[in-house]
């Protein structure tokens, strides 16, 4: 799991389970979207003690492909374990951000001290995005054209980074 990353591990585990049950495994070329932001996102031992159940919940979250699936997992977690701690809420928000990344052709999001950098898929990048973002955010963004273009967005450290990322991505 450490060698391939958690999301890829969950996808591989899901494929093996489908094969064992006689289901059809879809061939998909899906890049692992990296989210590197300064928030705690995990399932605390105090919330779910069983490692097996935790792994199952992590897998369910990692395999969510849309908002409906995230809501289903959220409902299941709350039904089984009660009110979620902030760390679990953050985990689900990161799943939402990953789904938004797929729609916006973003490969990676990395938080720096006072900014968040959004790395785009160079083959799918539309330069009109930059013009739109400049109109909305003016001096709060910087664009770097390259094989992997990226936009650096200056954030307010007094506000939730997750909320700022989601708002920014809605404008892309």
A few lines on this structure:
With 172 residues, the protein is α+β, with helices and mostly antiparallel strands.
Model description:
With 172 residues, this protein is of the alpha+beta class. It has a single domain (31-170), classed as Alpha-Beta Complex (Aspartate Aminotransferase, domain 1), CATH 3.90.1150. The protein is built from 6 helices and 5 strands. Helix 4 runs parallel beside helix 6. The longest helix has 19 residues, at 86-104. The two termini are 33 Å apart.
What is the averaged pLDDT score?
A: 88
Structural class: alpha+beta
Terminal CA distance reads 33 Å
CA gyration radius, whole angstroms: 18 Å
**Helix proportion range:** 40-55%
Protein topology:
Layout: H1 6-20, E1 34-36, H2 51-62, H3 67-81, H4 86-104, E2 106-111, E3 115-120, H5 128-137, E4 141-144, E5 150-154, H6 161-170
Parallel strand pairs: 1-2
Antiparallel strand pairs: 2-3, 3-5, 4-5
Helix pairs in contact: 1-2, 4-6
């Amino acid at each position: 799991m450490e060698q391939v990353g958690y999301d890829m591990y969950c996808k591989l585990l899901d494929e093996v389970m489908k094969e064992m049950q006689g289901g059809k495994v879809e061939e998909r070329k899906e890049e692992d979207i990296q989210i590197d932001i300064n928030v705690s996102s995990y399932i605390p031992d105090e919330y779910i003690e069983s490692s097996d159940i935790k792994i199952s919940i992590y897998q369910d979250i990692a395999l969510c492909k849309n908002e409906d699936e995230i809501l289903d997992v959220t409902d299941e977690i709350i039904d089984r374990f009660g009110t979620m701690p902030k760390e679990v809420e953050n985990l689900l928000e990161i799943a939402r951000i990953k789904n938004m990344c797929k729609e916006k052709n973003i490969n990676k999001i990395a938080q720096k001290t006072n900014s968040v950098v959004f790395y785009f898929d160079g083959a799918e990048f539309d330069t009109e995005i930059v013009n739109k973002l400049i109109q909305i955010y003016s001096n709060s963004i910087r664009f770097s054209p390259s094989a992997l273009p990226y936009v650096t967005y200056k954030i307010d450290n007094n506000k939730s980074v997750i909320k700022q990322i989601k708002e920014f991505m809605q404008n892309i």
